[in-house]
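Sharing a chain and its predicted structure for anyone who wants a worked example. Both blocks are below, sequence first, tokens second.
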Amino acid sequence: MDEIKKRATIKDIAEYTGFSIATVSRVLNKKGLFYSDKTFEKIQKAIKEMDYHPDAIARGLKTQKTFNIAFLEPWISDFYSEVFSGVQDAANKAGYSVANFSSNYSTEQENRIINTILSNRIDGIIISSAILDKQNLVKIREQKVPVVAIEKIVNDSLISCITIKNREISKSAIEYLINLGHKKIGFISEPLDIGNLRNRFIGYKEALSDNGLTLDETIVFIDNAFKGQRYLAYYDFTKKNLEKIKSCTALFITSDEAALAVMKALSDAGINIPDDISIVGFDGLDMSKYLIPSITTIVQPRYEMGFKAMELLLDLIDGKDAPSIEFKAELLIGGSTAKPKKNV
């Protein structure tokens, strides 16, 4: 029988390289500057050659950390997968593992997940949830677990948030349509109490008002049927409300996935984009570039938001301040917008 390979220890690396255990430990924990680049490279090479992996239990006992964090998203989508990639890369860099949870747009499930997370030893939580329940935040804070929220404005100065300037960038998108000559611009969205959608609607209204246009409630399409849905609900809604939607020369839609479904429904009804109706989406998902026509969309720096959220969480875990951050979003012009061909 083959001999079971013995797990390498810090002591083994020290003996192998000729350095002290203290020096090897400093290199492993990336602390202190009391070693040269040559020493660092030699120890790192030994770590790789000896296939060294830190003992998580021993490491946790020494540091009083588990080196595990939880990431909660409302549903699995391209947007949240890119946010999660940023979180995971920053976590890997710091030696942390990330457990991913999805509430599937259910408040009850989110509550169960929060309770499960809090019943286990974790060092912190990143919540990227469109349906964030304030009571859950209170629960988390009562247990003194560091938390960072992504794309959800929380009226609590003690909660660090990562977001974008939703109102300002939405206003810019509508002004872009107005400058093209559009006057009848519809708005399609999930309920406004979800995530930062209310700020997007405020930006839409402000752009109309600042440019002398009256808000037309008949072309504001906010429906509970969209809640937690991706494509089918938007497709069916567009087909059922085609006459009202056709009266618009442009539509501002608060996600690229929703925009894709609306564009498909319009195309199936023989409506050309952008000749008959211009479309502006939101999120800047990669798929928006490859559609025909490509979607004019607001690009959120999804990966960077996740990466920074993890960095903020690490600061909180280490007892440092972690102020909220607003990222800059950009309007990316695609083929789905053009000057209107009809006067309304």
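Comments welcome. The longest strand covers residues 68-73.
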